[in-house]
Amino acid sequence: MGRRYAVLDVFTHKPLTGNPLAVVLESEGLSDEQMQAIAAEFNLSETVFVLPPENPGHSANIRIFTPKRELPFAGHPTVGTAILLATERFGEVSGEQDAMVVLKEQIGPVRCGVVLKENAAGFAEFDVPRLPQPAGPTENPDIIAAALNLEPSDIGFENHRPSCYEAGVPFVFVPVRDLDALSRARPNLSQWRKAFREATSVDAFVYCRETRVHDSGFHARMFAPEMGIPEDPATGSAVAAFAGAIHYFDDLPNGTHFIRVEQGFMMGRPSLIDLEIDIEARKLHAVRIGGQATILARGELFI
Length: 303
Description:
Layout: E1 3-10, E2 19-24, H1 32-42, E3 47-51, E4 60-65, E5 70-71, H2 75-90, E6 96-105, E7 108-117, E8 122-127, E9 133-134, H3 141-147, E10 163-166, E11 170-175, H4 179-184, H5 189-196, E12 204-208, E13 218-224, E14 229-232, H6 236-250, E15 255-263, E16 271-280, E17 283-301
Helix pairs in contact: 3-5
């Protein structure tokens, strides 16, 4: 008997763009070692394993693996899995169908609002389960520039400088002056550990204010070579943590702020991540991540 799985493209409405995701729908009985081996076999940035919920108020328990390790939380697996489970529940819809999906991840339960539409990609938005917070110091910009094969003068714009935040998973956020500098960024593995040894993360989210799409707020790339991800097409958990850096450097006023982050364009996998930030009394009050996903393939694992 096989275990059903699906492959989705996430943070996009078009197949073969966005960030691919594998979701194993029937994961009962798999060991940790088997899950890690299956994730390495798929060799996508993340693979999700769906397990029956322990709490009847939840839709499923899920575990998330990169090719090299397990994660407590991740954005595009949350969006893709929520849309897939809603599709499993309702099948092909006529018109529009709303759903609520609650996924129990290692970080805790994650509430996802899903909208399915006839002949269209699904959309999901989730409440970030942990508000962004600083996650340690960073090395000086010259060392970070060397780790990204950039010049020191490429690092920073306006008042933005390298910082480290986490909303379940920590990232070092590296501002660069423009799209040209961003296009030249490449991990220099001989300098990588030196650049990020003072931080709690060795994953670099590199961003600039210049964008390809007129209504985007930032263009970004994410490098995580030590997790087996040379570059990620779309990183929802990084954008969730990025809300902390945006709030700090841009001094957001009270209210709700909608910011679209574009990623993956320089890989030929264009992705759009919707970020909503609620500010109350000049402090972060809530963060939400949203995006579309389309099912690309279905199959069975004979394990």
